[in-house]
Design brief:
Elements lengths: L1 E9 L3 H8 L17 E5 L3 E9 L5 E11 L4 E8 L2 E13 L2 E12 L7 H25 L6
Antiparallel strand pairs: 1-7, 2-3, 3-4, 4-5, 5-6, 6-7
Length: 150
C-alpha cells in the first residue's frame, strides 16, 4: 500500500470550493483532459457514487467505481475507490485561509491488486496535475460569478 498527499491553495471562499468540488458531474474528467466520462449512479447531499473507465496497465479499459461520503458541516469528504486494478481510500479536507482563499489537503492510500503499482511520487504527481486543472477551472468559475453547483 502506498500513501500520498497533495495540497492546493484555491482562490475562492471555502463554501464555494466545497460546493464546486463535490458537485460531481459526468463531464468533470474533461476539465483535466480525461477522455472517459463519469457515469453518475447516485448523487445526494451526503453521498455520490459514480463509475468510469480508464486505461489500465495493459492498455485496455478498466472499470472503477467511486463512493464518496460528503460532510458539508466540516467541509470534507471521504473516497472509497474500487477498481479492477487497485483499491483506494481518500480524505479530502478544506481549511479556510481567509475570506477568499481555501486550502485543500488530500491524503490518499492505494493498494495495487496485482504486482507493483505506481510509486507514491508518481501518484502524487498525477493527482497534483489533475487538481491544478480543477483549481484553474474552479477559480475561473468563481471569478466569473458562475454558480458552484450545476
Amino acid at each position: 500500500m502506498v500513501t500520498y498527499r497533495v495540497s492546493k491553495t484555491l482562490n475562492a471562499p471555502i463554501k464555494y470550493v466545497y460546493d464546486w468540488a463535490t458537485d460531481f458531474t459526468e463531464s468533470d474528467n474533461s476539465l483535466w483532459g480525461g477522455r472517459d466520462p463519469r457515469i453518475i449512479l447516485h448523487k445526494t447531499r451526503k453521498r455520490a457514487i459514480y463509475a468510469y473507465y480508464s486505461k489500465g496497465a495493459d492498455g485496455k479499459p478498466k472499470l472503477a467505481v467511486r463512493f464518496v461520503s460528503l460532510h458539508p458541516s466540516t467541509y470534507s469528504w471521504h473516497l472509497d475507490y474500487y477498481g479492477e486494478e487497485a483499491l483506494e481510500t481518500g480524505e479530502y479536507k478544506l481549511t479556510k485561509l481567509g475570506k477568499t482563499r481555501t486550502r485543500l489537503n488530500i491524503v490518499l492510500k492505494q493498494k495495487w491488486k496485482h504486482g507493483k503499482g505506481p510509486s507514491s511520487r508518481a501518484l502524487a504527481k498525477e493527482t497534483n496535475s489533475v487538481w491544478v486543472k480543477y483549481g484553474e477551472a474552479l477559480e475561473e468559475d468563481y471569478r466569473s460569478g458562475k454558480s458552484a453547483t450545476s
